[in-house]
Amino acid sequence: MSQDYWSDAARILIKVYHLGVLKIFKALRYTYLCTSRLSISLCFKLVGLFGVGETYPSKPSTE
Description:
mainly alpha
């Protein structure tokens, strides 16, 4: 039982690690694209579109 638990935990950790690394590379790539070629507003659209900035709301809040 403990072996199954550890293999599941390791699998989850590896998955989280890979997702984190991919997100960092994505963020760096889009940051480079934004600073080199794209306009700021288009950059934010891309970031929202590809889910790099999940902390930002995808739609502006209507108040």
